[in-house]
Each structure stands twice: as structure tokens, then as C-alpha cells.
Amino acid sequence: MAELLLIARMGGRRIAFPASEIEGVVELEGLTPAPRAAPHVAGLSALRSRVLTVIDGLASLGIGCTDAAQLGDAIVVPSGGHPYALLVEEVEDVVEASGAPVAARASIGVGWDRVAIGMVEAEGELYLLVDPHLLVAGPAAAAAA
Amino acid sequence: MDELINDFLAETRDMLQALSGAIVAWEAEPGDRERLDEIFRFVHTVKGNCGFFDLPRLQHLSHAAEDALAEVRSGKRVPGARLVSAVLAVIDRIGELVQALETGEALASEDDEQLIVDLHESEAAPAVSEQEVVSPAFTDANRKGMRSIRLSVDLLDRMMSGVSDAVLARNELARRLRDADRDVAIEAAFERVSACIAEIRDAITRTRMQRIESLFAPLPRMVRDLGAELGKQVRLEMDGGDVELDREMIEMIRDPLSHIVRNAIDHGIEAPDKRGGKGQTGLLRVGARQAGNQIRIEVTDDGRGIDAETLVHKALAAGIVTPERVERMSPQQKMALIFSPGLSTASEVTAISGRGVGMDVVRANIERIGGLIDVDSRPGEGVRLVIRVPLTLTIIPALTVSAGGQIFAIPRSAIEEILRVAGSAVRIDTVGEARIATVRGRRVPLVSLPDLLGVDAAPDAFGAKIILLKPAGGDLYALAVDMVHDHEELVVKPAAPAVMAAGFYAGTTLADDGSPILLLDPSGIANEAGVRLEGDESDRHAAPALADSIGRETSLLLFRGLDGGLRAIPVPVVERIEDVPARAIRLAAGKLRVSTGDRIIPIAGTAVAPETGLLRILRLTDGAAELAYAFAEVVDIRAVVLDLKPATVPGEIAGVALVDGAQVEIVDPYWLFAAHGDGAPSDDRRPVCALPAGDPWMDNMLRPLIESLGYHVVAAGPGVAADILIASAESADPEKPATGEVLRLRATPEAPSDDDSIYRYDRAALLNALSRHAGKGRAHG
Questions:
Q1: I need a surface site. Which of B143, B194, B297, B411 has the fewest CB within 10 A?
Q2: How much is the pLDDT for B736?
Q3: Please, what is the Cα angle at B352 between B347 and B354, to 5 degrees?
Q4: How many CA atoms lie within 13 A of A121 on its CB side?
């Protein structure tokens, strides 16, 4: 069976996440800052009785910072026993991949390189397939590993 | 069928766990019929079930073990070390097979035959059994028990989080109702829903509680195996297995506890020939008990102990401390160096306890769940480690504060005092870049929470408060915040690593309105802000655990009695707090008694049994006997230096003392146990007092007094041994007992010259003479 992909827009690009790693898509209600936490942590938000650690995807990539005042959709990713919410500009669709991901042979850019699984084709378009766990772990974890 | 086999596997696993203690006990005493029967029943049950499920290997093994044990039971064989080991090996293999079946892995190695041969070969010499062994009927007594079902832990967790959601929804609804127009009918309905939710939450919290037994169960086996491997003889004593603790908490303590036990056997207890006068067998004690809202687990060994100076040398060599700092350290702080990372006290690295890593990891694990660990040792006499952990992992009392407009929580356990900056009690000076708060003549470093967080403090400094914090294992410092809000019970969850990276958060929680709150970690703040330890003061947090040896601070449980009076009792004698139904309390055999679990214990603190409802009791223990004390509510736990004003007559209340400015009656546990206990633990440990037979004054007036001091009273007569013999000064001198003394009482206040008798109503002199002996009797009891 072909893999399901969640297509979202982040940093102006359309990227794909493996849907199996995603718990759901939510609209965050409020954001509580977490002063002096790692730079890619935008803050905390409550989802029912759980506390989600909100991740600024752009900061994790090191290519900018999401404007906290304009919260878009967030993707809920359980990772390492903690629930995270990954901020994206917009969640577009869930589609079926038409093949297995392949390594991107072109340079996809600093930051993106760290989180990319490869390229994947779905419904006639080519997307960058991103590992959400690497995105929530942030650049510091990658440096330590 | 699948379900049946799963039930069988789970049951077998549980039985194996429960059995591990029995196996070790049986090995120590192969003649112990009860243990033997227990093990026999196990293999018998396994054999029966395997036949049903067609599991030939398990059946083969259990059958062979059953045969061997049956021979022992019928007296045809004497169980020796080899047989015990062979049976153990078979039982281990059964465990491995069960595990393999559960996980669906390939089955373990194939040398079952060798195990079975071992069973037959051991101790070839047949037993010369002279006495007839009566085989008791196979009983299923242990199998009866409570009605219970198996539930998956996931389901429990889902229930818990469902209830948490319900609580939040209720809070939300409560807020909406407050804003809306009042409607009595709706409010009444809401109250009902509220009460239901509270009850469900309570019940579910309780389902998460587990007896600490499950934590202790693997210890006997571990101690046995380690002892055998290291050639040491260790006797394990366990106590308090019925104390209940949050399931998650038990899992968190499991590893630290086994590490401590391993350490005690590996490094603590000496080889039999090096133990000197202490006897060849080392003693390891593991005990648990509930003290207020904490569980206290104590591990004591009587091994070689830890030498504080050796620790200091190693710490100096490893660069963990500086010589200047060492000079200012208390013995307690030196001992606590054992928890420093990268320090190992063993001169050799061993396979059992490893190297370097160890106690620092143990401490880190305990502290992560909000617990404390203290160590106390005397070289040559042993080590005592005390772990104190909160009852549940999830709910902690906290204070909410704000800084820069955002709300944070601080665990209440670390808070010493809250002060207003504007008040006259506090002065703040700036010394270089640092700020120092002077509180009643005491200088403590001041950390500003807004500065630390890198946020702007709220502009109206007028409301600013400082909180004196005393983190676990650290020193007092002051934290400035913008505002102090409220005391709350918070459900705390761990925070994500990226948040913890800040170094001063302990977890996350949700406020009543559903917004997230970060819980601050007081010792993390101290580290992050560079607060230096104050060397010359002993760690106050270590004090309650070692109250006898250091300082005179007593840890007291403050409560209200049924009559509304404010009382206190030393925390160490309180085993736990329980609610008992009124019907469990009966005036029986001359005393008010309560039945709880499978025991009947005397109850004090109330003269009449309540008719209905629940009664809260403190379960008190003196180590051997138990006693219940009825009370209305817990007020607090305080560590105080007691200035006791003694009561005029000895009784339930030892005296009165000031605690936080209020007069508090201090309950006298000694008197309680003497008066209400079911006698001292056993008659032979009590001092014996002989009274002349047939003297009505002695029998009616004196006897109750003597008995209340813990004496066992016997009738005097020739050949009666007693610690003290009471005689009337007016009658002829009695025959002096072989041991003990004679106490002569006279009926007139004035003493004849050179007479050592005591006037019989001189209570003080009488008590003095009697308690001198009572003390002696207890001392060698």
C-alpha cells in the first residue's frame, strides 16, 4: 500500500510529511512562552488536557522565525514520549505517494538538508519529504548526535 | 484460546514473581514445609495448565521438578544446596519460556534435559527419614483472594487523562456559570456533577496505586544470587510491603533501589571472614512506610560503612571540590559527596556495581520524580540510605507566581517563606553585580525571576514579593517575583527536552482555565543564576531523616483531633493515614478496636465508636506493635525544634509546644503504646515485676500503674524470677530474687531512719524507681 503524505506549506514551500508519524492537525488556542527554552521552541499550548510543546519550524531550520501573532495550523507530532505541535503556514491535503522516496540529488539548501528524508512524488508533483521528528528535535540535538 | 493462553502466561509470570521470595526462604531453610508446599503448588499448577495448552517443554520441566519436590515432601529425599539450585534453574527456565511465549521470540536454549538430569542427580544419598512425614492435604488457601480482573495499564492512563479532561471542562463550566445569571436548579445540578467527577478522580487515582511489594519481590532472589556470586552471606529483612504507591512511581524507583541494594552487597557488606565481631552473616534491611504525603524507603546494611574522609580525598583528587570548600563542609555534606558524578568509593571496579557511574545517577533519578535521598554512615557499622518520594508522581502542591506577565509555578516543598519587598523585614543591597537580600539579619543571594527569564518585570514594583527558597540539597536563596497568586494542587507532566534545556524547569502543568503553566525547579534556578552554596551550614533537608543524630529538630505531623484540638505527633511513628468505615470499629475485649485488612488493632483518640460514615485514622507503629489514632484532618507537616512544656499528669498528651505561634498538644506515642497497645510485642521482652499475692492495694491500685509502664506483672513467690520485686515494708522481708531488685513500699509518709523504702503514694519516686527498670528491661529486649 502506498504511503500517505500530509502536504503542508512551511517557509513558503510545499513539503510532505509521512502521515503515519502525525497524530493530527489542530488550530492552537493561545501560546504560552517558555522563556530561555531552546530557540526553536515557540512556547506551550494546551490541547485538551495535554500540554503541547510548540515548535517553530522555521527556527528549527534556521531560516527565520514564525510570527507568533499569526498562528496558522499546527501539526501534532508525538516524538520521544512528548507531544509536539509543529507550526506550519497551512496544511493543504493528505495524498497518496505514487512511489518510494528517493534521495534528492540537488542541493536543497542548508537547514532543509538536516531534516529531509528525500523526494517523493504524489499526484504528479514532486515534494520534499521531511522527517517531523528531526524538525521538532531542533538543530542543537543534531549537533550533539 | 489465545486469550486463555495469555491469561495463563500472565498468571504464571505473577506467580513466579510472588514465588521468588519463597524460593530463597526455602533455600535458607530447606525444612520449611510451607515454602516447599508453595513451590510445589507452583510447578504443579504449571504442569496442569501446560497439559491443557500443549506446551511440551514447559510440561516436561514442571513435571520433573514436581517429581523431585514430591520426593522431598514425602521425606524420600533431603533437600540440599544442589537440589535447591537445580529446582531454581528449572523455575528460571520456566520463566524464560513464559517470556519467550509472551513475546513470540524463539524459545530459549535447548538443554532442558541437563536441567532435568541435575534434578535427579543431586544428593544421591537417600534420606534416612525416621519420622513419618504427614502429607497435608493439598490446599488452595492461598489461591482465594479478592475478586479482581486484569486491566491494561494503557486503559488506566486513558481513564486518568479522561478524568483530567472532565475536571478542566468542569472548571470551564464553573466560570461560565459564574458569569451567567444565577439559576439555582442549574447550580445544584452542576454541584452534583462536580461531586461525581471528584469521586471518579479519587477512585481512578486509587486504581493507579500499587503495593510496594511488587518493588520488593525481586530483591530476595537478587540478594541470594549476588551473595552467592560474591561469596558473601547476607540476610535480607523486608518490611512495609503493604505500603501503596503510584504505579508509575514504583517503576521509577525500581532501578535506583536495585542499584542501592547491589551496592550494599558489593561494597558494603564484607566477606564472612572480614566481618570481625559482627557475625558472618551480613544484614540488609529494606523497609518502606508512609509518612504523611511521602513514602520513605530505607535501605540499611551493617557492612563496612562509608568513610567520609576517603570520600573527601577522592573528591579532591577528582577535582569535584576545592580544598577551601572542604574545610567548610559539614560531615553530612562530606557524606553527600557520594552522590557526586564520577566518584566511586570502591577501590576495585567490579562487575556488579560497575564503576564511577552509580550513586549520582541514583540521585538524579530520585530527584527527577520530586524525591530526596540522604545517606548516613558510620565506618565499620554500616550505611543507611533514606529515599523519600511523594505519594504520586502527578499531583504536587505548588504556589503560582508571575514574572513579566506570565504565570509560573513553584513546588511548595521548597518554599520557606514569602516576604513583601516593601515591608520592613527585608533589605536589598547591590554588591557588584549581585543583589543580596537581608532578612532578619540573615544575608541570602537574591535572584530576580524576570531577569533570569529575560523578560521585563511588571512596571509596578510596588507589588513585588520575594520568596525564600530552599531547594533539595541546596542552600537558602531569595527569588524576586512580580506577584504571588495562589496555592494550587497541580497535575504535573514532564516537559519536552527542548524546554528542559533551559535548566530551570521541572515540568509542565495546566491551570484551571486550561492554559499551560511551567513548573520552576528551585535548584535549577540556583545553578543557573550562579548561587553559590553556603558551606558552613549543614543541609537542613537532610536533618529530618537523621533527626536523632544531628540537631534537635523533630518532624511533626500536625492534625486536628476529633474534638477539634490542634495536636501533633512525630512523623516517624506514623505509618500511614487511612479512612476506615465506622462498622470496622467495635468495642471488643475491653478496648475500642478497628479491623483493617486482616488485622485488628486498638484505636486511641476517641472513646466511642462512631455510628456511621468514615473515620480517619493515623496508623502508628513502634516497629513491632500497631495502633490507630482517630483524628479529623491533617493540617501540615512541620520540622520544628520542640520546646515542650510537659503536661501535669502523664497521659495521651506529653505536653504543649508552640508551632508557628499556635499552641499545639504533642501526642505522647510512648504513653499511647503503653496504654493502648496490645501489650508490648511479646511477653519475654518486657521487664517482669513480681507483686505479693493477695494484697488488695497492690492488686487494685499499684498493678495498673506498673502495667502501664510496660511491665509484665506476676505473683511473687519462691523461685519466681523478676526484674523487680515489690514488697510491703511492713511485712517480713521477702526472699530476694536471684536477679533483679526489691522495691519496698511503706504505708506512712515519714520514713524510719536508714530505710530505703518508698512511701506508696509518692508517685514520682515510685515511677522513677520503676521506669529505671523498665528502661533496663527494654534495653536488653
A1: B143
A2: 60
A3: 55
A4: 4
Q: Which pLDDT does position A15 carry in this prediction?
A: 92
- CB contact B514 to A (< 8 Å): yes
A50/B161 CB distance under 8 A: yes
User: Chain A partners of B518 at a C-beta cutoff of 8 Å?
Assistant: 32, 34, 44
Bridge partner list, B758 = B745
Place of cell 537445580: B86
Q: Contact at 8 Å (CB) between B494 and B507?
A: yes
Q: What is the ipTM of this complex?
A: 0.89
Cα B280 to Cα B345: distance, rounded to the nearest angstrom: 23
| Residues in chain B closer than 8 A to A141 (CB atoms) | 497-498
User: For residue B142, what is its C-alpha cell?
Assistant: 492461598
H or E element at residue B595: strand B591-596
3-class secondary structure per residue, A68-135? CCCCCEEEEEEECCEEEEEECCEEEEEEECCCCCECCCCCCCCCHHHHEEEEEEECCEEEEEECHHHH
Please count the CA atoms within 13 angstroms of the CA of A54 that sit on its side-chain side.
29
Q: Does B587 touch chain A (CB under 8 A)?
A: no
B161 inside 8 A of chain A by CB: yes
CA distance B66 to B42: 9
**pLDDT confidence of residue B107:** 61
Looking at CA atoms only, how far is residue B648 from chain A in angstroms? 56
Compute the distance between CA of residue B120 and CA of residue B291 in angstroms, rounded to an integer.
50
Q: What is the model's pLDDT at position B355?
A: 37
C-alpha separations of B672 from B565, B678, B709, B770 in Å: 17, 11, 11, 18
> Which residues of A are less than 8 Å from B447 in CB distance?
none
The nearest CA of chain A is from the CA of B341 a distance in Å of 21
pLDDT digits (tens, 9 = 90+) for A68-101: 667 778 999 998 778 999 998 889 989 998 888 8
Which residue of chain B has the CA closest to A81?
A: B496
Q: Is A51 in Cβ contact with B509 (below 8 Å)?
A: yes
Please classify residue B639 by burial: count the beta carbons closer than 10 Å to its beta carbon, then call 0-12 exposed, 13-18 middle and 19+ buried.
middle
User: How far apart are the C-alpha atoms of B707 and B241, rounded to whole Å?
Assistant: 33
Q: List the one residue out of B372, B466, B468 whose CA is nearest residue B416.
A: B468
Are A97 and A2 in contact, with CB atoms under 8 Å apart?
Answer: yes
Copy the grid coordinates of residue B277: 565481631
Which residues in chain B come in under a pLDDT of 70?
A: 1-3, 51-52, 104-110, 121-148, 291-293, 342-357, 370, 391-395, 422-423, 458-463, 472-474, 532-554, 623, 641, 677-686, 718-720, 731-739, 751-755, 773-781
Q: Which one of A29, A41, A50, A51 makes the best mutation probe of the B interface by having the most chain B beta carbons within 10 Å?
A: A51
Note whether B317 contacts A: Cβ–Cβ < 8 A: no
Q: What is the pLDDT of residue B638?
A: 73
Give the per-residue pLDDT at A25.
92
How distant, in Å, are the alpha carbons of B18, B19, B86, B136, B767 from that of B34?
14, 12, 19, 10, 46
Whether A117 has a pLDDT exceeding 90, the answer reads no
